[in-house]
Amino acid sequence: MSDGAKRCGLVDLQVNGYKGINFSGTDLTQDDFVLACRSVLEAGTTAFLPTIITSAAEVYEHNLPIMAAVLQSEEFRGRLLGIHVEGPFISAQDGARGAHNAEWTVKPDIAYLDKLIAWAEGKIKLLTISAELEGAQKLARHAASRGIAVSLGHQMATEDDLRNLVRAGAVSLTHLGNGVPGVLPRHENPIWAGLANDDLVAMIITDGHHLPASVLKTIIRAKGADRCVVVSDASSLAGLEAGTYNVMGEKVVLEEGGRLYDPETGYLAGSSSTMLECMNHLASLDLVSSNELIAMGFHNPLKLIGLGPEDIAQSGDICFDEEDRVFYIEK
């Protein structure tokens, strides 16, 4: 480790897959899941939440037990911190649903959530729902009572919707600035509502494609660095070469620069970046101090899901060079 560098960790609350392995895929196997998780850790992430997006019930029933079994294994203790279930209780509206299949979205349903919790063997740590849906408050209260952090995203929520969900136990906003239509009303929209709410932590994708620097600067100024959490939102195509791919029956394009999108809609289809790459992009913008950077990538995400540094199996191989403002893996 060079002079002026400090050891740190990186915790990612939103990893959908890696190197061709999709955590929401119908053909997910335990061996593939283990391989992908090892690869994510080797790429510079200290600990993370494997994430499953809006899916058919049979996919949840098949995939969640696989994920739960692996995260309880000795190898991944303190590295896989739980499961992030993003959906299916989200908006079906185009734009708001992002890359999620509208056919599999469902209205808030406590009985269905209990099925998900059972399939995941109680290991769901984070649940993303839409605040404006009927029954969202009851669902949030139920999830919170089961020790699940509730985040709000893929929505068309108003300020009142967000306030109501905060009272019901919601704690954060999933990838603020994304998961919304490309064209929004000037003032009454979920981005402004999210920025104005002081109770909700902002999860942000800092890969250089999901949010321009000016928007990142605005979010961090409005929320404060202590209320921001960096996530990669890495898709199954993260770690792969540029090209055209088929993901869950949908054609997506991964450009040389890392932008991943649906060619039919033009909407982004997730991220191709790792947590290390997201942190280095944010560091390059010089928007926050070194200590704030480390908090946004380590302490803040842990706090959001009710954990602390003592809950992490520290690898000790992630360093931050304060002079060059670069995170790197010490070999």
What attributes characterize this protein structure?
alpha/beta; TIM Barrel; three-stranded antiparallel sheet; globular
Can you put this structure into words, describing what you see?
- This protein is α/β, with parallel strands linked by helices.
- It has one domain: Alpha-Beta Barrel (TIM Barrel).
- Helix content is 30%, strand content 20%.
- It is built from nine helices and 16 strands.
- The chain has helices at 30-42, 57-71, 110-119, 136-145, 159-167, 190-196, 213-223, 275-284, 290-304, and strands at 5-8, 11-15, 17-18, 21-22, 47-53, 83-86, 124-129, 149-152, 170-173, 201-205, 228-231, 243-247, 250-254, 260-261, 318-321, 326-329.
- The strands form four sheets. An eight-stranded parallel sheet has the order 2-5-6-7-8-9-10-11. The chain has a three-stranded antiparallel sheet with strand order 1-15-16. Strands 12-13-14 form a three-stranded antiparallel sheet, with no helix packed on it.
- The radius of gyration is 18 Å and the shape is globular.
- The protein starts with a strand and ends with a strand.
- 50% of the residues are buried.
- The mean pLDDT is 96.
